[in-house]
Amino acid sequence: MMFKILNFTILLLVSLTFTRNVIANGSLGGVYLIETYPIKENLFIQGFELDQEAQLLIGTGLYGESAWGYFNWEKGLLDRSIGLDNQYFGEGISLRDNELWQLTWKEGKVFKWDVKTKELVNTYEIKGEGWGLAYNEEKDLFYLSDGSSTIYTYNPDNFKLVDQVEVNLEGEPLDQLNELEYANDAIYANIWYDNRIVKIDLQSGQILKTYDLTPMLDQLDLTAEQRETMDVLNGIAHIEADQFYLTGKNYPLIFKVELK
Question: Tell me, what CATH number does 136's domain have?
Fold first, then answer.
């Protein structure tokens, strides 16, 4: 009789633990891998964006190597349009009409380029660091991250700060926010040195969904050398609905995924 009671107690504890985990992880979203595409050079990817013709623009970082241009899917290489001067470390990029906007890391500069002519249209100044950049076409606003738990809102007419919101996960600030993408009335963000992507409500700063890419990354057929070269997830480009292109710094692949 004691064995049966003990056994029932263990089952009950397991059941309660499972229930608590389901509640705690209720915001977890599913990650479904659709396709992979090779990258045949090391690209320290900082910005990732689809243009109006669904062509993929990439911005890269590192001093002396920062650039932006279109990704050549057939060759798996970046066709560099613009290389930044050596004193600039390129960060996040975003598109507004035919303008490509590009952050710099510690230099306090924001560059506005004409995508078609590849000419520098204007340069703006910001305080602090620049990490990720995303554009909301409906509201005509930019969202910027700087590695903290805050997302800042900027007016594109003069790139002046107009608002900010602190991002929180279950009431606690979540910092190290990196590459940003605006889609589905929310912000999707990479977290520096983390395999999670978070979907953020811009009104409250609350995280609506968390997508853990660890199982997908662990199952990739990669060499030991490729895994050694890979740095951190950093790159979110919205395709349509729940479909995105994802990648990372020095990653050998671009992933087409569905984030449910």
Answer: 2.120.10.30
Domain carrying residue 143: 29-259
Burial (0-12, 13-18, 19+ Cβ within 10 Å), 113: buried
Does some domain include residue 7? no
Count of structural domains, the chain = 1
- Give the DSSP letter string of 73-116: TTTTEEEEEEE--TT--EEEEEEETTEEEEEESSS-EEEEEETT
Q: Can you tell me the distance from the alpha carbon of 57 to that of 210, in angstroms, rounded to the nearest whole number?
A: 25
Q: Has residue 2 been placed in a domain?
A: no
Q: What pTM did the predictor assign?
A: 0.88
- Output the tens digit of pLDDT for each of the chain's 260 residues: 333 333 333 333 333 333 233 333 348 999 999 999 999 999 999 999 999 999 999 999 999 999 999 999 999 999 988 999 999 999 999 999 999 999 999 999 999 999 999 999 999 999 999 999 999 999 999 999 999 999 999 999 999 999 999 999 988 999 999 999 999 999 999 999 999 999 999 999 999 999 999 999 999 999 999 999 999 999 999 999 999 999 999 999 999 999 99
Rounded CA separation 86/62 (Å): 9
Asked if 80 and 69 touch (Cβ cutoff 8 Å), the reply is yes
Does a structural domain hold residue 173?
yes
